[in-house]
């Protein structure tokens, strides 16, 4: 698949999470709840590159002067950005370097109807592409039919949500997961997703208006039921804008429409802030997951589960689905790291969604959805090793406390 490329009051905290006694149960449920906000409180080789944008303490959108100066060097009028200047996708002005990322809050841009119109960011590869493996791939897995997650998601699933952004093709969507911030325990504002959900790769630049919506459509309502939905039904914890983003140089340089050489490095971390409110993301949703950077081999990893919001037919992007399978190896080239591959029928829109496994009795994020085939029978995700950990640590240390 193409890596399957593929604001509201906070009302609910994550309720106490049942201790998992079996693998499926453990993968289906989030790790220890950390306490929510509002009415319900929880009971019971590529070098990492980082980019930034920022607001001042008053909530008024400000772009740091050094970034503003660089944008102007690229011919971008910063003052007009929020008034629609971001819609200019002139290739000469499509900012691609890490230092050029900018994502000022445009309050009210991501309304429910605009979210529902977003198309999947989908990366598909052909059978021929997938077989160019130099003999190190395992046999193609049997398809695993994606299962709908139980509702409400904030009680039954890991802290997964949808990542919305604007691309030259229009409003687009991926999936993402709230992860812990090791340097700011209990107050994480970090989200894990795919690199192709934030940056176009070798032939483009940073996407715009990046927003994370945790537990999107928490009760799994139908399109008809959501036709007159208020923002809290769609976004129970509000909209969280990325004020910093980081992905790998491997994706920035090698990513393509089918994943390309960047697929093995197709991961990203967002640092987010609420469109409204002041509490951290982890405090607001009541949960976050650790990331496993040990990069276990497929044989060592055990069963994995992939979660996300598939949006391409036969799905419509409104509901969360999951697949559980034992991973095999996928190699796109002998010069690239091996990827994990599992059977799964999720389609575009699930890109960036977390892959989880149980490690030492708790659920951890071990990969994310990156690519899949045109017939939607399996998914593949990158191994997260030292390079991914360096990217994560950089985000946490430099921006996590802001």
From TrEMBL:
Which segment of the chain is annotated as a signal peptide?
1-33
Q: Which InterPro entries match?
A: Glutamyl_endopeptidase, Peptidase_S1_PA, Peptidase_S1_PA_chymotrypsin
For this protein, the record's PROSITE patterns field holds: PROKAR_LIPOPROTEIN (PS51257)
Q: Looking at the record's lineage, which domain of life comes first?
A: Bacteria
Q: Which UniProt keywords apply?
A: Signal
Region entry Disordered, spans = 34-62, 123-153
Q: What is this protein called?
A: Secreted protein
Lineage, top ranks: Bacteria, Bacillati, Actinomycetota, Actinomycetes, Kitasatosporales
